[in-house]
Amino acid sequence: MKARKQVLGLAGIAGFLLLSELSSRSGLVDSRFMPPASDIVGALMGNLVHHKFWIAAGQTMQAWAIGLAISLVLGVLLGFVIGSSTVLRRLTNSTVEFLRPIPSVALIPLAVLLFGVKIESSLMLIIYASFWQIFIQVLYGVADVDNIAMQTARSYGLNSLARIRHLVFPTTLPYLMTGLRLATAVALILAVTAGLVIGSPGLGREIALAQSGGAVPEMYALAVATGLIGVGINIAMRKVERRVLSWHSSVRSEAIA
């Protein structure tokens, strides 16, 4: 079944590439704006042997990793602290609901004013966007702890640290993994967006430079490269999630299916 899915997936990609090639070669679409797939694939292969591409990819991944790590620490800490206290949840609810919908791109002018085109601008956008994905999921996880189980743990004399370790954390972990998986994708989007709009180092800036220089196949090749990085990150996260949550019913039922 798995092999059949992979074959169908590859067939879908091949069909899309063929359709793109024929559309451009036949003049159905303007090849100046949508070059043939073979040109894009050729440009992508050329990038892979060029050190400039790997430097830009490394800069993007560096911003992604640092921003995601900071978001994870802040989201988990604040999520557990605020989620564990009814008073803190009520005190922060209005602030959270006000700040959470603000899109990170709206903070681009502020990021430029504070940090210019340095990597710190990218980090500010990545951390802001990724933090909410993790923080909100941790809040949901802490709130989902069974009240009877909590009362039972208290009656058996478990202190706060023991209750967090044996009850709150296992309940919250599936929510945390979901938030982390969402945050990895959001962080990559913001890392590329910061390069495109602000001009901070990375693949986004290379895409903008290729576009302004009229190198259309290279521009598409870089965009495809960011997509491939995103696919790789998602596959890696799914594997980590299955391993960490191998005991959870959702992962076990998925494995059986």
Features:
single chain; 11 helices; mainly alpha; 257 residues
Structure description:
- This protein is mostly helical and 257 residues long.
- It contains eleven helices and no strands.
- It has helices at residues 2-25, 37-48, 51-83, 86-99, 108-115, 119-143, 147-155, 160-197, 203-212, 216-244, 249-256.
- α2 (37-48) crosses α10, α3 packs across α9 and α9 (203-212) packs antiparallel against α10.
- The longest helix has 38 residues, at 160-197.
- The N and C termini lie close together (10 Å).
- The mean pLDDT is 89.
Structural class: mainly alpha
Calculate the terminal CA-CA distance, rounded to whole Å.
10 Å
The proportion of strand residues reads under 5%
User: What level of helicity do the residues show?
Assistant: over 70%
How many strand elements? 0
Structure summary:
By secondary structure, this protein is mainly alpha-helical. The protein is built from 11 helices and no strands. α3 (51-83) crosses α9, α5 (108-115) packs across α6 and α9 runs antiparallel to α10 (216-244).
Describe how the helices and strands are arranged.
Blueprint (H helix, E strand, L loop, with lengths): L1 H24 L11 H12 L2 H33 L2 H14 L8 H8 L3 H25 L3 H9 L4 H38 L5 H10 L3 H29 L4 H8 L1
Helix pairs in contact: 2-10, 3-6, 3-8, 3-9, 5-6, 6-8, 8-9, 8-10, 9-10
